What we know:
Two copies of one chain form a homodimer. Chain A is α/β, with parallel strands linked by helices. Chain A has a single domain, classed as TIM Barrel. Chain A contains six helices and twelve strands. Chain A has helices at residues 28-40, 61-74, 123-135, 147-158, 182-195, 210-220; strands spanning 7-9, 45-48, 50-51, 57-58, 79-82, 104-107, 112-113, 118-119, 139-144, 167-172, 200-205, 223-225. In chain A, the strands form three sheets. Chain A has an eight-stranded parallel β-barrel, surrounded by six helices. A two-stranded antiparallel sheet of chain A has the order 3-4. In chain A, helix 1 (28-40) packs parallel to helix 2 and helix 4 packs parallel to helix 5 (182-195). The radius of gyration of chain A is 16 Å and the shape is globular. The model of chain A has no long low-confidence stretch (mean pLDDT 93). Chain A binds chain B through residues 110-113, 115-124, 126, 145-148, 151-152, 155, 176-179, 181, 183-184, 187, 191, 194, and chain B through 110-113, 115-124, 126, 145-148, 151-152, 155, 176-179, 181, 183-184, 187, 191, 194. The complex binds zinc ion (4 copies). One zinc ion binds next to helix 1 of chain A.
Amino acid sequence: MSDPCIICVAITGSVARKENNPAVPITVSEQIESTHAAFEAGAAIAHCHVRNDDETPTSDPDRFAALKEGLEKHCPGMIVQLSTGGRSGAGKARGGMLPLRPDMASLSVGSNNFPTRVYENPPDLVDWLAEEMRTHDIKPEIEAFDLSHIVQAAKMADDGRLKTPLYVQFVMGVKNAMPADERIFDFYIETLDRFAPDAQWCGAGIGPNQLTVNEWCIAKGGHTRT
Amino acid sequence: MSDPCIICVAITGSVARKENNPAVPITVSEQIESTHAAFEAGAAIAHCHVRNDDETPTSDPDRFAALKEGLEKHCPGMIVQLSTGGRSGAGKARGGMLPLRPDMASLSVGSNNFPTRVYENPPDLVDWLAEEMRTHDIKPEIEAFDLSHIVQAAKMADDGRLKTPLYVQFVMGVKNAMPADERIFDFYIETLDRFAPDAQWCGAGIGPNQLTVNEWCIAKGGHTRT
Ligand SMILES: [Zn+2]
Ligand SMILES: [Zn+2]
Ligand SMILES: [Zn+2]
Ligand SMILES: [Zn+2]
C-alpha cells in the first residue's frame, strides 16, 4: 500500500459525558484544544459533534460554527468533518450546519438498530442531506452500519446523488447493529471494491473494539478513526 | 443435498391490490382457495398476510383466525406462517395474532430502509415478539433484510431469546434495502453457517428478482418462497 493511512480523530461523540469520563471534551474550547493535541500527534481529520451546556448532543449550527472556526485557527490544514448523525437532532435539523461548508460531513444512507432504538435515516432525508452536501461542495463520509449501506452508497454514486470517489466508514461494535467481525470486515472491503472500485474506506470500532478495528484498518490498507 | 426443498407460498403480501393484479387473492376465502391450489401443487408453508375490506393491510387477529382455520381445513398438514411484518400494524399490534398459536410467524430482528420509509423494528418490540413466540411455541421465520440481521438472530439464539435451530429467510430486491446479488447471497449462507451451524434458510426475491432468487435457493441447498 502506497497511500498514507489517514487518522481521523473523533474527539467527542454524542453519548459519553463528564460523569462517564472526566477527560471527554465537552465545551467548544475543550474540543479545540483536544483536537489541537491530536493534530500535532498526526491526526488529519477531525470528526465533530457538539453539545449543549448540559452536555446533551445538539446539531446547533452556531456551536458547529464556533468549533469549525477554532479548529481552522488552531489546526491549519486539518480536515473538518461535521456529524449529521441522528443522536443530535431529528429530520432536517440534522443538516442545519451544512451551509457552513465544512470539508466533510458524515452521512448515513440506511437505517439500522442501535442499543435501545431504531437509527432512523428515511430515504427522503438521506436524499436531502446528500443534496445539501452536493450544493455546498462537502465530501460525505458514508457511515456504513450494515452491508446494504455500502451497496446503497455505490448506487447513489452511480445515479449522481453522491460525488465520487466515495469515502466510506465501516462502523462495527454497536449493540444490535453489526458486531466487530474480521470476516465481515473483509467482505465489506470486497463489496465496496466491487461496487465502487475507486472508493476509499476507513473503519471505526465502538467501545472495546476500537483498537482491534484500528489494527484491521492499518493492516488491510484503509484509514482509521480513533 | 439430501433434505427436500421446502416451498413456501406467499399468496398475498401487504402491498399489491386488485387494481395492480386482479388475480391477487384478497378476501379470506380467496386466500384459502388460492393456497389450497398451491398446496396441491406441492407448497408446504403458507406465509400469510390479511387485509381489510378496503384491501389495506391489517394485523387483525380475527381475520388471521378465520384464515388459519380455513387453511387447516382445506390444506391439512400445511405449515401456517402468520406475518408480524410492519406494513400491517405498529408496535405490539403486530403480534396480536400470536395467541392463535400458528406453526410459524415471521420475525424481523433489525431495522432497514424500505422504498419510501424506515422499516422500524425497535429492539424492545423485537424482544417482545420473540418472547410471545416462545410462549406460544411458534417457530419464527427470521426475515433478514441485511447482513447484521443474520448475526443478530444467531446472537438471540445463543442467549435464549430464540429457539434453535433457526429458520432464516434472506430477503433481496427491496428498494433501498439489499438488492438481489449472488455474491452477497453466498455470503449470507456462509455467515449463517458460521454463526448458527444448525440453521436452515430460504430466500425471497422481491418483484422481478423472484425467479432468480428461487434458482439460487434450489441450487445452493436452501428452501424457497414463491
Ligand atoms: Zn460521530
Ligand atoms: Zn490550540
Ligand atoms: Zn410477508
Ligand atoms: Zn379448498
